[in-house]
Amino acid sequence: MANPLLNSFLPLFYISWFDDVLTETEMKTMKDAIDSQDWLTKTDKDELFSKIDVENPPSRSQINEWKEIISKGVDDNNDDELLTDVALKLALVENPETDNEELKKLYFFLQELEKSLGIISSEAIFAFKEKHDTITSKYVTEATFEVEKLTEILDGSQAETINKVKKIFTLPAFKYEESTDTEVYREKVLKWCKILAKEGLGATAYPKEHGGEDDVEAYFSIMETLSYHDLSLVIKFGVQFGLWGMSIQSLGTEKHYKKYLKDVGSLKLPGCFAMTETNHGSNVKSLETTATYDHKTKTFTVNTPHKLARKEYIGNAARDGQMATVFAKLIIDGKDHGVNAFIVPIRDSKNTILDGITIEDCGHKMGLNGVDNGIIYFKNVVIPKENMLDRFASVNSKGEFESPISSDNRRFFTMLGTLVGGRIGIPRSALAVAKSALAIAIRYGDQRRQFGPQGGSEVPILNYRMHQRRLMPYLAKSYAIHFALQYVTKRFLHRKEAEMQEIEALAAGMKAYSTWNTRDTVQECREACGGKGYLSENRFGALKNDTEVYTTFEGDNTVLMNLVAKNRLSEFRNQFGEMNAVSLFNYVVDQAKTSITYKNPFATRNTDENHLADPEFHLHAFQFREKEILASAAKRIKKLLDSGLDSFDAFNIAQHHLINVGQAYLERVVLEQFQLQIETTNDKGSQAILGKLFQLYALSTIEKNASWYLEQGYMEGVKTKAIRKAVNQLCWEIRQNAVPLVHAFNIPESCLSAPIVTKKK
Amino acid sequence: MANPLLNSFLPLFYISWFDDVLTETEMKTMKDAIDSQDWLTKTDKDELFSKIDVENPPSRSQINEWKEIISKGVDDNNDDELLTDVALKLALVENPETDNEELKKLYFFLQELEKSLGIISSEAIFAFKEKHDTITSKYVTEATFEVEKLTEILDGSQAETINKVKKIFTLPAFKYEESTDTEVYREKVLKWCKILAKEGLGATAYPKEHGGEDDVEAYFSIMETLSYHDLSLVIKFGVQFGLWGMSIQSLGTEKHYKKYLKDVGSLKLPGCFAMTETNHGSNVKSLETTATYDHKTKTFTVNTPHKLARKEYIGNAARDGQMATVFAKLIIDGKDHGVNAFIVPIRDSKNTILDGITIEDCGHKMGLNGVDNGIIYFKNVVIPKENMLDRFASVNSKGEFESPISSDNRRFFTMLGTLVGGRIGIPRSALAVAKSALAIAIRYGDQRRQFGPQGGSEVPILNYRMHQRRLMPYLAKSYAIHFALQYVTKRFLHRKEAEMQEIEALAAGMKAYSTWNTRDTVQECREACGGKGYLSENRFGALKNDTEVYTTFEGDNTVLMNLVAKNRLSEFRNQFGEMNAVSLFNYVVDQAKTSITYKNPFATRNTDENHLADPEFHLHAFQFREKEILASAAKRIKKLLDSGLDSFDAFNIAQHHLINVGQAYLERVVLEQFQLQIETTNDKGSQAILGKLFQLYALSTIEKNASWYLEQGYMEGVKTKAIRKAVNQLCWEIRQNAVPLVHAFNIPESCLSAPIVTKKK
After folding, report:
1. CATH architecture of the domain with range B171-411
2. Contacting residues of B for A401, CB less than 8 Å apart
3. Is the CB of residue A53 less than 8 Å from the CB of residue B406?
């Protein structure tokens, strides 16, 4: 510039043109402002105007010259410098004697100008800086606990079994199958199962006298650990040793154990669990396949009465199964004795399909294509009497039906109850998959850099608050569910007859809760890995598609949640007698009393940090919700029934409400078990980080249910807002430990496999 | 019974044993109650006790005998009959003269007994009935509008183009590819593209003088309609004719059009759009590939400086592409002139990869395996000067850089702006997929029956309230998004320079909104179809996996939502000058004034049906949220900046809030456009059902945001609860029209394909 003082305008002009942040109107504003300054001469003004003439923009090389001039005034090491500070230095460089008054005017004018143009001075300065650090840029992974100690807590007494399985994964045979050919994949999965059987893992749950270890707990741990590897393997393994083998063990008697269990455990006798029919998947009480008894020949004739009564989706059926546990209505002398279970051979040992059996392949599926699901039709297939699995019902020597349980319904549900183990294996397998997805996405988020402060280097995407918000709550939830599933497993292992209904509901509910969580976690993790997440090599395709059916099989989740809700309603009835107006009223009054301290203005508006972090507050909020929702559902159904509605209609109208009954119950159980775990954790480092995860699980669940708490007046807006902020803050704090937390899952790198995190670049 | 009067107890005993609804304690209760009745003799009591002795349960044949006796008292045609009515009839059958007093006692005793045992008399009766109808059972599909008329409204002016594409689908060549072999699939997709090109569809958007139709609107309709068929086809088609062709048309000049467009449109010249690099996917401004100009030879040398700067995920690259539009930093005399676009040959016409080019296959992906995505490395590849796409920047005859846009940033974003069409094609393609998923799931839900009232036949699962809740809001949302995308398309087609930033933000936002909606819709629809939904033949696998990357490509959704939010903030600034305390305060006061009528107790508690159904209420609620969230985000960021935080940190802290700014803006736009559509719909039947869908979209969106409205005091709990009920009711009402509503999408059956709905059983 002719007048060197005017160089102080260059930073402003530079960013105006270079980044085009200003509109034409704003350029005009700038011009008018300059025009109004009487301490500038006409020549000064004209020179300045020439630089901001939208009709005559500066050339590129001119802009670059400006930058070189400006750079002289910038201090790379001073992060607090403003654009106006630089401007002032520029004015001084070639003009050390300018009197102070003029400089002051200049300084204030420039400041005003920037403000009125909406330029953020502290941000704009970075256009001229070589480097730029921010809080966001500097944040890095730093473990505050010992990873191995947390792994010990997670694995608990099952460490040995878990490590045994992991060691098997190191065998070269366990390399992932990459072929998209279904036949190749099925062959590989069968081979894997054979290796596991050979290692004795298949028979783990069976009695010692039949080749097993009598260790159901270990069986679940095996299922879970296998889920770090291939899900088709898990399901094939589960069908053979769980569904097929355990149906014999749970529904049969000694003669069946002797005859079959050893061969099942060694995989010499591959078999199926043939319950589901095309027309009856959820409503299995209404299965239509028949097994008709003939006392003369002492045989049952198994038959598929029509096409839609065929057995469908049966694992092990399309390719390998030689026998099947078939669920069919038992008919004696024309009378229907409800659904019972029978062992029916379907292939001979050379794998030839037997007479009367028709098998179709279910064909390609979204996932689990290493499992040979099939369709089975029976055309008057005759089996000997001893093939009836007769623990709960039998045909006596006179050809009469006999059962210690007189009700067909009750007997059938008792039979199903013995099979509840499947509803523990599946959510545990699902959780392992959620952990794998988190391990990949969180480690990738820690490495992957994209965008950054102006003039600064790019930032790990896990430092972005939204990225944390997307992943940290799922990380917390996966820890929460881990301990809850340990609890369900223990309840199942030490079950007593009287607790069975409760345990069944608990397992059904946790199956839904965990598999839905996996669905959501894997989805979010895939998206968090962008295009890399879409490549099959990074495993989200398999994790997502293989577990997609987890929300459907072993009981459709929505149907299960209805079941849980109905169980809660009957618990309610047990506790308060019949569901009449008086007892409901008493219950509600009782509820109100216990929560009175929480419904005063101080509590509903309490946003104190310590209060929000207090596990007692969390537990009370969860319990309050659980009880209140249950009571209101009961009231509502009663009201609908009283109005003369059919109970089927009444329950249908309240269905959405009932799902929430189940949800609130499960959330309370999960919270409670997580808290118990923390209380009994000795290692301080682990305890502290588990405590943070607990808080995040608790508060993000409350946040999800915020509208309900607000409706109830249990919290006011200030509190739910404070909780939202607390969730953000917890996500930020946990991010520091996020990578160590997924390392604590201790998933073998060969299983994780995803090159985005396991390969050196 | 010895005393025939006692037969009246049989119904109660029967259901106690048959369904095992009573616990042992309750059996004891029953025994005690009987014991306390002085009008029963000792012999009577003993006989009754013998029937409810838990130590000696009745035999099965005995229970069946009871049922036969009971059936005589049941009137199959009287739905109002209670268990006690039947009991009384049984007492009378063999005992017509029993004196009234005794009968009365008996009647009241049985009533009391049932109540104290928690038996719902009107439900239990159905154990003895042959048939049983309920409201839930009777509800069926019944169209209240003409399907063809609604289709006309949806297709609008594009009906001809849409029908032309649908006709092509009927060619035998368009049968779906079932092979899991990637090579076979890619070959098929290329063949399909060639057929479409031959039919003239590829060049639709290009100028007439270069073989096209100059019809961009038709191009979008083609993309959308193709999405009913195969998604790999859509993307391959989009890469070739959209990304590759349109990059030439948008970034090049006449000489390029002449040289390339005809061959691109006929697919003689397959090409790629090579922007994304491994290290830069979202932050494309920082791409690292270089194009260095040499004035002596008048050439550019294109180079990949290091491995992670390779071009990745490039469609058409792995197999078919012969040229690519490559985005690279232009370097002249050592100076960086920002990212520009260049045409670089990568294969010759015989498909041999050229010198200096290395291509790798991206390998198997979650979906879209019919598209040959590849990785490209350039090793000093020399191209002639005319290969620079020089609409926005060029090298002049002196070898100097020239551009009408002086800022590198601005120029790059102007270039990207011309490519915004991709962000319209993708959400429209996504919506077509959501429609397909809904068509399958809703038609299946209408046919599939499972469970039912006791003694009644099974019920279509779409009659279950929860099933409606899962699907109806997505049906409403797909209609809402349809009209919003029509609006975005029109805005784009008639764009003016000054609106470009707004249109870009709108397109970016709707891309995110629509693709996330498709992700969720397809997921819910898959689950709603249970095991059948998991079979590939029913297409959810393809619909889900092919669109999985839609939330990532053409801009990661989360990044796009940030962009939308920043655009909204700058609109805010434009409207109110700088973001200072005074203008913010004024804005908020202004807001408060306009909403004063809505924040009085009457309005916040108004649960009147007409009010909840009023589009004015909906629009105000959406607008209030949009403005309030924007203002609070602006205030928050200002506060953070004022506290001395770096703007990068400040925006990071508010990131979660900013996503909501974008969300609220999009929801308002969608609502507004839906409402405009309804106002201009002449056909009364269509208008009425669209009105219902509009209400459901409006109220279910408010329900989703309920906690926010409650926090703001804009609504009270009574109102949000009433809205929840209104949503349930709307789901129930719309279910009747649900099947006709998906028929109105008019998706060809051959495309829908799913045997669960298209095949006769």
Report:
1. Beta Barrel (2.40)
2. 60
3. no
